[in-house]
Amino acid sequence: MYIKRFILLTFILLIISKTETISCTIIMVSDSNIALAGSNEDSVFPLTLLWFVPAKENNYARICIGYKMIFNSVQGGMNEKGLFVDGNSLGKQGWKQDETKEAMFGSLLDKLLATCADIKEVKEFFNTYNTPNLDRARIPVMDKSGASMIVEWYNGKVVFLETDRSYQIATNFVGSKLLGQEKPCWRYNNAVEILETKDTFSVGIVRETLEATHLENENSRTVYSFICDLKNGDVYLYNYHDYSKSLKFNLEEEIINGQQEYYLGQLFTDRNPDYEKFIEEGPGKMIERGYTINNSMALMFYSILRTHYPKAFKKDIDINVLSQLGMDLVGKGKLEDGITFLERNMLEFPDSARSHFELANVYLKTNNKEKAIAEYKKTLVINPNHKQANQGLENLLHH
């Protein structure tokens, strides 16, 4: 059962990082007084979540940020020892298993936060365990001493990319390939331009850098940002690339209240029109991303949304989400796939004349007249004045 869950979680994480347009920018800075790490999470997924995990047995207390995708999918966070971890998605890097290392199951980032106190212990972790996540990601890490590194797969081995500068930046390329070379990322270069002129750092400077590197486009946008003060255990949270408003949490104070979780949609209720549009379109984009794997993954995402979307935004998933995908696939000639989603839509909205009518029309396209007749009749039970359903049924019965 555990192996099956791990495989399922791996598929979900694969979808989250499937395209290069879904990216992240991580900033790590330190001086004699401060150690700060900040992250922009760039995505199309609306179900962003913040949660606190108290210490338990040999696991450290931690604050995590990410998604509610059957399991809590940690995308970044900080633990009680002042360790920060995050991730940048990559294309396949050719990672290979090391027979001398142990297997690792579950969320890599959560394992690091739960079991590692500093950079040294993170290195020991990667030297002990096989971590297939490195095939498609690099892992920026920082501890409260100000030491930072980026863990990545390069030239057939795990590399710990460190620096003697007061800052380190991680975006979506393998840094080990480009040592001493110009970096092919405008977000990285924007961050360097800001940070290389600073002798000391502050939350304001990290926030400025995150704002200068955030994304706003149809394929990906910065859905949240956060900054960790590793010496004091504070986290500053920003929602949907709005850096004018933040919420501050202290890990030690929060874990006194035990396990907690909050959707960012609950914490930030002031929604501008663009954020409202993102919330409205998010479910469709999420299901379309699942469809790039297969029908089952898309429908699994739909089930997740039906459960969690109302909790996050106090809105139910409406009939349009599956209807639009189904009809779009039909328009592209993918009739069987279209029927799969329209049949599920009919089951989800059995009292909607539209769900039955759309399904009847597609059954007709596949020459399944008996099913088309049945769905036209159901349409007319709900709406006896539905002219198109009446016409469709009459045509079938008389011809």
Describe this structure in words.
This protein has helices at residues 2-16, 108-115, 119-128, 186-195, 203-212, 251-255, 264-267, 273-291, 295-313, 320-331, 335-348, 353-365, 369-382, 387-398, and strands spanning 24-30, 35-43, 48-53, 62-69, 71-79, 84-86, 88-89, 137-142, 148-154, 157-161, 167-170, 221-229, 234-239, 247-250, 260-263. By secondary structure, it is an alpha+beta fold. The strands form two sheets. Strands 3, 4, 5, 6, 7, 8, 9, 10 and 15 form a nine-stranded antiparallel sheet that branches. Strands 11-1-2-12-13-14 form a six-stranded antiparallel sheet. Helix 4 packs antiparallel against helix 5, helix 8 runs antiparallel to helix 9 (295-313) and helix 10 runs antiparallel to helix 11. The model is unreliable at 1-11 and 13-21 (pLDDT under 50).
Helical coverage, percent range: 40-55%
Class computed from helices, strands and strand pairing: alpha+beta
Low-confidence stretches: 1-11, 13-21
Number of helices: 14
* Sheet of most strands: 9 strands, antiparallel
**What top-tier CATH class of the largest domain fits best?**
Alpha Beta
Number of domains: 2
User: Approximately what portion of the residues adopt beta-strand conformation?
Assistant: 15-25%
Question: How far from one another are the termini?
Answer: 53 Å
- CATH fold-level topology of the largest domain: Penicillin V Acylase, Chain A
Order of helices and strands: HEEEEEEEHHEEEEHHEEEHEHHHHHHHH
The count of β-strands is 15
